[in-house]
Amino acid sequence: MRRYLLRWPATTWRLGGLVILSAGVLIAWSLSGCQKSAEQVAQELEHGEEAGEQEASSDLEETPEPEPAQTMTLAQFIERFNATAIRESQMELLGRGYDVVKDKKGLARFVIEIMHGDEDEEVRANAAETLGEELGRHLQRETVRALVRAADPEYEPEVEVRQAAVRSLMDYRTPRARAALRRAIRDPVPTVAHLAAQSLVRSFGREGPRGWARLIDMLGRPEGDASALASLELRARGRGPVAMLIDQLRRSKRARQRAAIATCLGVMCSGNTPRQQRFAKATRATSRTARQESTPDPRPIEVLIEALSDSDALVREAAAQALGLIGDPRAADPLARRLKDPDEYVRKRAASALMLLPSADALVALNEAAVNDPAPDVRRYAVEALGWLAHPVSVRTLIKALDDESAEVRTSAARYLGRLGNKKAVDALIVRFFKDEDADVRWAAVRSVGQLGGKAAEPALTRLLTSGAEEPQVLQAAREALRRMGGAVPLSEEARRLFDQEGSG
After folding, report:
1. Can you give the pTM of this predicted structure?
2. Whole-angstrom Cα distance, residue 301 to residue 249?
3. CA-to-CA distance for 242 and 252, rounded, in angstroms?
4. Integer Cα distance of 286 and 50 in angstroms
5. Model confidence over 394-420: pLDDT tens digits?
6. Superfamily (CATH) of domain 298-389
7. What residue ranges do the domains of the chain occupy?
8. Cβ distance 224 to 196 under 8 Å?
9. Can you identify the CATH homologous superfamily of domain 391-505?
10. d(CA 173, CA 168)
């Protein structure tokens, strides 16, 4: 048969070939005329015409399904990547690589090479981001090693690449990855350091009690805001970590960590008692979200009282603040003794903590500190604590504080004398709002006189309003005080002009 066919003339073969070619063209032409493109079908469906919808739907059924994915070999992918001149297209191609290349391990190795070797920092950063997704799992050990290298400022100078490497390392909970994140907390660029600390904190926060221990170890480390982030994460766990914090406060050799633990315990165990609510409302320290009433946790009181005697002033200060937040009466006398602390900040925290802790020893120590402490801030906090404790014995001390060299101390004394409600203070306050050179002191004195009232109050306020020039807030306070007392409100021409301008404005 073969021999027979070979005897056919060449023209016969040519003619047969032309016939076959013509038939193929006719078949292709008929198919293209009968079958719409996917774009035409989509347009008909979009127009929503009734007849067109039916026809298009039937056409869609006839349209052959596309291939599941335009897969390519790793070599084809690399060739296309290297041929792409536009940076954005290269980055987009890297992101699509996972879906189009079957050889995932080979692709991961290629992306690692790009992350280490590409001259464009954005492409390297995109490669680092890609390795943090599913692709890196196919070659985890090599991926983690490469990301650790990319997160090292000694190897990778570009911040954007290091940030991407740190973000990707967060997805790998291996010892090598976490060790790299701990090193990245000390990165010279704050944004990278913060991102590394954030990554570790989130990772530890998902691990329960084992993670709490690691978060506690981060307390007191300022790099990358690690201490603050760990503290926030621990507080979000409620009172679960309290026992571990108490134990570590006793055992820690790092002063910064002890101070951070004390602060953390104060916030976590403070509760929300009615007395604290009144204090917060009066000082305008309220939160946007209403807190439910809760009982303070007394477990850390003993260890915090011990911390008041710590060798480091920072720890003593944090312990005093924490004890004030919890508000346990057992802390009153130890805090009163801290008003003799050699460190000014410890004394200030002790004075402020005693605002909600009445005790005989505390009253004696506060009265002495309000007048005799060398630091103005300590005297001011002591005056405010006496005002909040509202004991009659403190009136004399606050009147004496009206002559303090610090205007802030005088302002606090004038304000809290009105709160105490003792009319013996009226004469001293009247002298102060005519004599004091500081407008804030005069304003506080006028308001307190209005609260206290008395025979001398109304003529003094009237004299102030008719005396001529004065600060607007002082005149306004005098007018409100007279109205509260039910007296007439005479105004000087200057005061009347001032109030008329306010009303018209």
Report:
1. 0.74
2. 12
3. 15
4. 63
5. 999 999 999 999 999 999 999 999 888
6. Leucine-rich Repeat Variant (1.25.10.10)
7. 69-184, 298-389, 391-505
8. yes
9. Leucine-rich Repeat Variant (1.25.10.10)
10. 11
Residue that has been written with the tokens 């005697």 in this structure: 309
Q: Round to whole Å and give the CA distance between 5 and 8.
A: 6
- What's the pLDDT at 275? 65
Q: How confident is the model at residue 160 (pLDDT cuts 50, 70, 90)?
A: very high
Q: Specify the 3-state DSSP secondary structure of 171.
A: coil
CB neighbour list of residue 385: distance below 8 Å, 6 or more residues apart:
351, 352, 354, 355, 362, 366
φ, ψ dihedrals at 437, nearest 5°: -80, -15
Q: Which of 436, 438, 464, 437 is nearest to 450 (CA)?
A: 464
Burial 314-341 (b: 16+ CB within 10 A, else e): bbbbbbbbbbbbbbbeebbebbbebbeb
Amino acid identity, position 191: T
* 150/115 Cα distance (integer angstroms): 8
Residue 246 identity (one-letter amino acid): I
Residue labelled with tokens 């802390």:
331
Rounded CA-CA distance 62/64 in Å is 6
* pLDDT tens, position by position, 186-238: 999 999 999 999 999 998 998 899 999 999 999 999 999 999 999 999 999 99
